Amino acid sequence: MAYTNIPYWCYNIPKDQWPAECPEFLLNLSERDQKLVGRLDKDYQRLTWPEVKKVIGRWMHHAAETWLTLEEDNKLDRFDRVPSDLRRYIEYNAKLKEEYGSVMDFVVKERLKWTDLLPRDAVRFSDSAISDIKILYNDWPYGIDERIVHLVVWTKFELPDDPETNEVSLAMRQEIDDYVDRIFCQAVPKENVIWFKNWKTLKSIHSVEHFHVMLFDPDPAFIEEVTQGDIALSRKAR
Questions:
Q1: What local confidence, expressed as pLDDT, does residue 71 receive?
Q2: How far apart, in whole angstroms, are the C-alpha atoms of residue 233 and residue 182?
Q3: Rounded to whole angstroms, what are the CA distances from 63 to 60, 66, 127, 140, 228?
Q4: Which of 58, 64, 81, 193 could cross-link 86 (Cys pair, CB 3.0–4.6 Å)?
Q5: Partners of 144 in beta bridges
Q6: How do residues 15-73 score in pLDDT, each as one tens digit?
Q7: What average pLDDT is seen over the chain?
Q8: Comparing 33-37, 109-113, 143-147, 204-208, which segment has the lowest mean pLDDT?
Q9: Quick one: CA dihedral 21, 24, 25, 29, positive or negative?
Q10: Residue 137 and residue 177: Cα distance in Å, rounded?
């Protein structure tokens, strides 16, 4: 099928379902999202595991108490979604906002099932802080190799940023590193595990602290255990 001069909102849906006008949920998109929605899935290239690691960067602790990064690390704005997945993500979020008032309210009530955001334990990531942490699938994963499992670690406690860099602070980075090693690297080779915390400008959900963990080709049984049988919304909504 030729897509010459077809409006962006008609891409990746059957021709007999093409709307005459742009659906409301696809109005006022950023230029970047509009271009991506108006692109064929078959022309989209998913990021490989080496490319994902290059986007995120691997933090290495140096003896001088500094963190060294790969030359092109932490370019998190390079992550995007498969065009049809982005369309579904935008449409689903629009429905959530209409029903729940905000995506955050939905996440807290329906996904996290937390009645409050008050930490029960004074020590972050301690064994006794289990009720302050929940590991779930990223509901709308990025356009990456489908062998990569993308999880989100939600916390009731703060994950402080460095006010000068707006990135996770040095001390907090060490705490998260230790937690990721303890929870994930016991079951998945360390070279197949990477984590990142979005810049504030890139967060789709504010007010609830969280960071992301990506694992390359992990044992499904481990993922079932660590997420307590969670299923991503993108799979439920198909």
A1: 40
A2: 27
A3: 10, 7, 28, 38, 38
A4: 81
A5: 47
A6: 999 999 999 999 999 999 999 999 999 999 999 999 999 888 744 332 223 444 444 44
A7: 87
A8: 204-208
A9: positive
A10: 19
Buried b (16+ CB within 10 A) or exposed e, 200-210: eeeeebeebbb
Give the span between the Cα atoms of 12 and 199, in whole angstroms.
30
Q: Residue 9: which of 83, 78, 94 has the closest Cα?
A: 83
pTM: 0.87
Residue 107 · residue 122 · CB < 8 Å: no
CA distances from 103 to 117, 153, 182, 205 (A): 16, 17, 30, 7
Distance CA 133, CA 112 (A): 9
Say how far apart CA 15 and CA 25 lie, in whole Å: 19
d(CA 121, CA 221): 29
Lookup: tokens for 74? 């932490």
Cα within 13 Å of Cα(235), Cβ side: 7
What residue type is 55 in one-letter code?
V
What average pLDDT score do residues 120-146 get? 93
The beta-strand segments (E) located in the chain are 60-61, 67-68, 133-137, 148-155, 193-196, 209-216
Q: Which residues contact 194 (CB under 8 A, 6 or more apart)?
A: 52, 53, 56, 58, 213, 214
